[in-house]
């Protein structure tokens, strides 16, 4: 890689990090457009104008999103507001389950107290701890919610315009490039569209199935708010490796809060573990195969990189964004060693 290419990559990384509030909605809208492009093409084949087909698809997606938020808003708000109290309950239950270790901990604390009293005489008796009552968690989230709503509207409208333009936007982008690179980049964009559309569609269907199966399993176990945890399971499943672990922990903590005994949380965690094993070892390899040639190291490093750049949203988008980087690297001569590094 020549020095100018390295400098350019560093500048791109800095721009992605500092300009996340502007760039991230554009990236999400682009990926959403790739996901919905097959549905728009299907409607266009039925002799609908492209703009009308894009509008119908986006109206449908927006309606599903609004209905889902409306149904899950109250349970989610209730759990968020009760989070401090719930964590305290979890801590008490975990301590009750670990009674054999408590005696050893108490003995160690007594020894430490005796040692401190013998050396320093303890803290002054006149000092008092001053605590400041924190603001309600929901009030802290209000500003974030307004910001997220604005970003969501930006994503929806931008995705519609990208879908309504169809292939014209791709052609206009290729025309901006130097003539010697125009054909290569046009082919790269077509390949990127195909791979991304396939990946996003299949992975969305798989993760939706994971969410529905988790919902059904928790419903059978009489778990409170099973739809909420099903949605969380489906969304977090976009994050490779870590998403399933986080979901397992969240379900376990919610179970400890909701039930007096421990076998219900263990059954719920076991049910999700079985669902995840079937998805990761059977469903995903069978449906995706080798269409996304990324090695496990590249996926994990991509997860760390995009998570560092854009937080949880970057972690969710890590795999498709890393695949896009590989497609571009395979088509640009100076970046081909980087593409080989990502290859499976």
Structure, described:
By secondary structure, the chain is mainly α. Helix content is about 85%, strand content about 0%. The chain has 14 helices and no strands. The protein has helices spanning about 5-20, 20-45, 50-80, 85-95, 100-120, 135-165, 170-175, 180-220, 225-235, 240-260, 265-290, 295-315, 320-330, 335-340. Helix 3 (about 50-80) runs antiparallel to helix 6 and helix 13 (about 320-330) crosses helix 14 (about 335-340). It is globular and about 75 Å long.
Main attributes of the structure:
83% helix, globular
Q: What order do the SSEs take from the amino end to the carboxyl end, as H and E?
A: HHHHHHHHHHHHHH
- Rg: 25 Å
Helix content: over 70%
Number of strands: 0
Oligomeric composition of the shown chains: single chain
Number of helices: 14
Report the sheet with the most strands, covering strand number, pairing sense and barrel closure. none
Distance linking N and C termini: 21 Å
User: Which geometry do the CA atoms define?
Assistant: globular
- Uncertain spans: 131-142
Mean pLDDT: 78
* Portion in beta strands: under 5%
Structural class: mainly alpha
């Amino acid at each position: 890689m020549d020095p100018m290419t390295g400098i350019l990559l560093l500048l791109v990384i800095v721009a992605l990090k500092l300009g996340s509030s502007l760039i991230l909605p554009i990236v999400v809208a682009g990926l959403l457009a790739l996901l919905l492009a097959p549905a728009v093409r299907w409607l266009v084949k039925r002799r609908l104008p492209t703009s009308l087909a894009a509008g119908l698809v986006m109206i449908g997606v927006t309606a599903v999103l609004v209905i889902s938020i409306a149904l899950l808003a109250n349970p989610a708000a209730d759990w968020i507001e009760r989070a401090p109290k719930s964590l305290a309950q979890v801590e008490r239950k975990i301590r009750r389950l670990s009674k054999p270790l408590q005696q050893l901990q108490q003995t160690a604390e007594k020894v430490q107290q005796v040692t401190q009293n013998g050396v320093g005489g303890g803290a002054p008796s006149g000092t008092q701890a001053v605590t400041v009552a924190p603001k309600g968690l929901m009030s802290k989230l209000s500003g974030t919610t307004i910001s997220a709503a604005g970003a969501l509207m930006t994503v929806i409208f931008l995705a519609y315009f990208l879908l309504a333009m169809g292939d014209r936007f791709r052609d206009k982008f290729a025309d901006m490039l130097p003539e010697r690179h125009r054909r290569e980049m046009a082919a790269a964009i077509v390949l990127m569209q195909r791979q991304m559309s396939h990946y996003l569609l299949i992975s969305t269907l798989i993760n939706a199935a994971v969410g529905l199966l988790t919902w059904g399993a928790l419903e059978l176990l009489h778990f409170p708010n099973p739809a909420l945890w099903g949605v969380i399971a489906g969304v977090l499943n976009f994050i490779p490796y870590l998403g399933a672990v986080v979901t397992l922990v969240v379900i376990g903590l919610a179970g400890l809060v909701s039930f007096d005994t421990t076998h219900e949380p263990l059954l719920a965690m076991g049910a999700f573990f079985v669902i995840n094993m079937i998805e990761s070892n059977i469903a995903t390899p069978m449906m995706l195969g080798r269409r996304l040639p990324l090695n496990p190291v590249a996926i994990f490093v991509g997860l760390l990189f995009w998570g560092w750049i854009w937080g949880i949203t970057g972690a969710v988008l890590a795999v498709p964004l890393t695949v896009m980087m590989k497609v571009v690297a395979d088509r640009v001569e100076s970046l081909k060693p980087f593409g080989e590094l990502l290859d499976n």
